[in-house]
Target: chorismate synthase
Amino acid sequence: MKFLTAGESHGRGLLGIVDGIPAGLEVAEDYIGVQLARRQMGHGRGGRMKIEKDWAEIWCGVRYGQTLGAPIGLIVRNKDW
Model:
């Protein structure tokens, strides 16, 4: 599995590409959202991290909640941009 990222936290948003995931696995944006919310309670969090609500949008590689075997593209937009 490979994980690539692009962008910066104070820019327009962050992009992620996850490659090497087999087809047929269940993936839900809601589950990813729960995991991102856990990050807000982590070590070293700042004041902005407590109020910002990150949400990952799945752009490609998943259809009807299942992986396709193609790279999975995700975007986390910066609402303050």
User: Anything to note?
Assistant: The chain has one domain: 2-77. The chain is about 20% helix and 35% strand. The mean pLDDT is 87. The two ends are 31 Å apart (CA to CA).
